[in-house]
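User: quick one, fold this
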Amino acid sequence: MPIFTTYLGFLNRHGGADKVAEKIGHCFVYYVARDRGNNAVAPMDSLFIKLTREKEWSAYERYYNALVLKQSEAMKWMEKRAQEAKTGNILLVCFEKDATHCHRRLLAVEIARRFGIEYKGELEEPVRIYSLDGKNDKFNYES
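Assistant:
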């Protein structure tokens, strides 16, 4: 089953994780922000400082991929999500509204690439989905 991403405001507007699951099917929901039980894949404060200082997304992306996703705890976390995707959708949630500049998208793309799980993209209006080849596709949450 696929991976989806969204931000907390989307869940709040659509009645919470349970209501969203009614639309997309059974899902495991993970809040991938610091101190939400998923620190293995949440960005460190130093990464936010780096992004603020350099004001360049590519720098943040490089550091997140190198300093977070390559760690053994992050690898184990991603492998567990890939196993869960065999029985339900995975929904990665954080606070950043724009997935273009958010680690949840980087995390979803990495899980998809590493374990062959489909990343269906962001549950948000207007829907923007970032496939592995960089093209934008659409996922209609309302259907």
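User: anything notable?
Assistant: Confidence is low (pLDDT under 50) at residues 126-134, 136-141.
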